[in-house]
Amino acid sequence: MNRLKGKVVMITGATSGIGKETAILFAKEGAHVALLGRDQAKGEAVVDLIKQNGNSNVFFSACNVAKESEVKAFVEQTLKHFGRLDCAFNNAGIGGVFKPLTELEEDEWDDVMNINLKGVWLCLKHQISAMIKNDGPKKGSIVNTSSRYGVRATEAGIMLSAYVTSKHALMGLTKVAASEFVDKGIRVNSVCPGWIPTEGNNHLFIDPAMKANIDTTIPMGDWGTKEDIAEAVLWYCSDKSGYITGDTMLLDGGMTLR
Ligand SMILES: NC(=O)c1ccc[n+]([C@@H]2O[C@H](COP(=O)([O-])OP(=O)(O)OC[C@H]3O[C@@H](n4cnc5c(N)ncnc54)[C@H](OP(=O)(O)O)[C@@H]3O)[C@@H](O)[C@H]2O)c1
Predict the structure, then answer these.
(1) Topology of domain 8-247, per CATH?
(2) Residue with the nearest Cα to atom 31 of ligand 1?
(3) Backbone Cα Rg of the chain
(4) Where in the chain are the domains?
């Protein structure tokens, strides 16, 4: 308890999956959480859950991370509500459609890039501008959600060219952001989850053959959990990782070993 006591944290993609789990954990650990996603009803349900768990320092506002005006307004709302911003988890993302890259449509490519890459850049831009005004030498810690497909290609049969490209680029963006602000008290790291069951990928596994194919790619045998990722993000946000920036943590059951 209280590992993030009083820290103000912005979490994107907090209406489901990994982001929702992280929001719940952070609130249990005493953080003040500013949550966004596009689905108002789902966001309000997460707020209710957090309040039921005993933390009323929470708000949700609908925001599309691919729109600068909305991201800027959300960060301003966070500053108005909580007075400052200490940490951020840039987690909103989509997988896009499963297709060979030769069949992908331009708008399908753009959707993935706009949310997974441009969306994180827009968040970094406005979050860092806010954090830099904090007092003291340690001004902020930011974690971006990449993927094990941010460091390797997909296995045979998993056709996600836009997604893989966006997550590789996000690794570069994380390093650049860390480097540009390393002497300004801002840390920027990323997490690379392996297969984690969430609302976002349930639909992929209607086909048992696809699920069986994926299972064979995980050396540890099991899928990871949302809690695995949330705990890693918490550590990067906390002062326990205060000497680390530009880093990435693989949470993939050994997938990138093979
Ligand atoms: N699950 C896995 O196996 C896995 C593995 C590696 C990496 N990841 C990454 O982990 C992150 C979370 O994925 P998940 O599995 O938890 O999926 P999820 O359950 O579908 O959650 C995705 C979240 O992103 C939000 N989102 C999507 N587009 C958005 C936009 N334009 N603006 C604001 N919010 C938006 C969604 O909220 P709304 O629908 O309310 O907008 C939702 O809260 C993603 O970046 C994903 O690429 C997941």
Answers:
(1) Rossmann fold (3.40.50)
(2) 64
(3) 18
(4) 8-247
Cα–Cα dist 153/141, whole Å: 28
Ligand 1 midpoint to CA 181 (Å):
26
Task: Assign 231 to helix, strand or coil.
Answer: helix
- Round to whole Å and give the CA distance between 145 and 128: 17
Phi, psi torsion values for 12, nearest 5 degrees: -100, 150
- CB atoms near residue 121 (< 10 Å): 18
pLDDT digits (tens, 9 = 90+) for 39-75: 999 999 999 999 999 999 999 999 999 999 999 999 9
By alpha-carbon position, which residue is closest to atom 16 of ligand 1? 17
What separation in Å is there between the alpha carbon of 91 and the centre of ligand 1? Answer: 6
Catalytic residue ranges: 163
Given a contact cutoff of 8 angstroms between Cβ atoms, the answer to whether 190 and 174 are in contact is yes
